[in-house]
Amino acid sequence: MTQANTNHVFRALADPTRRAIFEELTRQGEQTVHALTRYAGVSQPAVSKHLTVLKRAKLVRHRREGRETHYRVQPDALAPMVDWLNLYGAFWRDRFDRLDALLERMEP
Amino acid sequence: MSNTAESTRTLVIERVFSHPPEKLWRALTESTLLAQWMMSNDFAPVAGHKFQFRADPKPNWNGVVDCEVLIVEPLQRLSYNWGVGGSESGLQWVVLWTLTPAEGGTHVRMEQSGFGPDQQAAYQGAKYGWGKFFDGLERVIGGLG
């Protein structure tokens, strides 16, 4: 996992419309850009832009079939998010240890 | 990767310290004490107060955490925003400390939750919270193995 990749994932999912699109893909499986546009209720160029961001974060994959582009999720891409939270877990446990040490040093 | 769905939604760390709540509250809210176990800071226990935690810069992180105090309930609850990487493109969390008197000490619960800057703007009227998102995500993450 690289930090840059993690940032891509978090930033891609920081936008509510992109989260909605991503979740729709997890729910419905593969979808065309047209179907996603109907679902998202924003313009097709806007949806395409969102999909580009999701693609850069490796959260979705696409394939062309005739004139249609089909998108589907790549669930593995969420792993950095999980890893990152594990890192934060380690951070807080370390701080709790330091807090405990401080409490010992403090006057009652 | 066990318990991933829950851990991606909210990170919770709990511990019972053998010290009274008063002492823990001081460690959490007095800037000089806070600096000794968290990071250097300009914290003040006043709702609405904006402050920073500062650590040594790391690759991809300038070492700064931008915060704003949200809740101050002496000896019980303390909450602040936790923002990394600037307000526009950065990542936003909410940190909530809860103190509860326990047998021989104090139960401390730290909860870090939320990912997106949802609260900042209604995003063209979109009302799509992380909670809902992660509800739908559990089955996906379940497949991560």
Structural description of this entry:
The complex is a heterodimer of chains A (108) and B (145). Chain A has helices at residues 3-13, 16-28, 33-40, 44-56, 79-105, and strands at residues 31-32, 60-65, 68-73. With 108 residues, chain A is α+β, with helices and mostly antiparallel strands. In chain A, strands 1-3-2 form a three-stranded antiparallel β-sheet. In chain A, strand 2 and strand 3 form a beta hairpin. The longest helix of chain A is centred in the last third of the chain and has 27 residues, at 79-105. Chain B is α+β, with helices and mostly antiparallel strands and 145 residues long. Chain B has a single domain, classed as Alpha-D-Glucose-1,6-Bisphosphate, Chain A, domain 4 (2-Layer Sandwich). In chain B, 24% of the residues lie in helices and 37% in strands. Chain B has helices at 4-9, 21-29, 31-37, 130-142; strands at 10-17, 40-41, 50-54, 64-73, 77-84, 91-102, 105-113. A seven-stranded antiparallel β-sheet of chain B has the order 1-7-6-5-4-3-2. The termini of chain B are close together. The model of chain B is unreliable at 1-8 and 116-145 (pLDDT under 50). Chains A and B meet through helix 1, helix 2 and helix 5 of A and helix 1, strand 1, helix 2, helix 3 and strand 7 of B.
Keywords:
heterodimer, A: about 110 residues, alpha+beta, Arc Repressor Mutant, subunit A, three-stranded antiparallel β-sheet, 5 helices, B: about 140 residues, Alpha-D-Glucose-1,6-Bisphosphate, Chain A, domain 4, seven-stranded antiparallel β-sheet, 4 helices, disordered C terminus
